[in-house]
Amino acid sequence: SGIPTFRLPDQVLDREIEIIKKKGVDIVLNRKVTIAELSGDYDAVVTAVGSHMGSGLRLENDTQAHDGIEFLRKFKLDGDQGGIKPGDKVAIIGGGNTAVDVARTALRLAAEPTIYYRRTIKEMPAIAQEVEEAQAEGVTMQFLTAPAGLSEIDGKIKLDLIRMQLGEADESGRRRPLPVKGSLWSFEVDHVIAATGQMFDRFAFGQNDIVPKQGKIEYKGDTPVFCAGDMAWGGSVAEAIGSGNKAAAEVDAYLRNIPYDPQVMPQDIVLPEDINYAYFLPVPRHMNKIYHPEDFHHDFTEVVKELNEDEVIAESARCLHCGDCFSCGNCFNYCPDAAIHVDEEGRVRIDYDYCKGCGICVEECPCSAIEFTFNKPAEI
Q: Which of 40, 170, 172, 241 gives 176 a disulfide partner, CB atoms 3.0 to 4.6 angstroms apart?
């Protein structure tokens, strides 16, 4: 409900929703419910309410600042511009995807948006490509800057800002921003929009003090409750979909009364230096075309165009199969001892009665799908 149409066109979203409905999913709209209300009618409940509530600036008079999530939602669903007029100066506080979406939307309303972020561009949690696109479109960004106060003066908003410097790393792994003494400064803007963090709506849980996490959670009631999406894990659309897939698999296992064994990312990751590039012909990447008009005023056309069918097929053919055997036959062809064969299922197998451990198959494997380790002989 908040992702701008220049990133996710309505017709694309509508098409996805129709596919879900055709699969047999019933969608009940305009009804806000709690888990307790649903418990008697369902064998399991999955909560995926997202993180659609802003956390505010936590400053005095911060009610003068609009909430970024609410601004995006109202504009997309109702066309409400939040009072933004052409030429207005808009200060956006934050460095995530919401801040970037707000700034790019304000730019399309012919305003002059500026993002103020307390760290540097390297620490911005927003998708890097989105940041680059916003800068290319003309969004101004001020880094190592944090809000210190808000006040209203003659219909304008006086925004107090303070310079920041980066200290030691915090629990997130990013360096902690610290205020620089004597660096306070102020200026007037027409609008301040806060995009400093998001929370989930607790309404679904009623009076229960729940900390959501991926999958099944502890909930006082007879119906099992699972969490998925932004409220539990991940922040992008792709991550939310992946979270939903995991939750669905866990619900399925629960209802079948079988163990749920989530697939965990293997510890041994194949890196670029592990690939034998001699066996791959260089093929140029197919880049998405970028829509970049001279004037963005009221132009919400999708910015990143999709690849066509031929381009998608060609792009998928560039896959290096990192760490995954794709039956290229190199190991079979190069083995000097005929120790490698293909079984009835078409899988490559090694006969250790013949293998002498020369390692040629490992060297000639294009995608590092074969591991080769030396075991220390047992002491007698």
A: 170
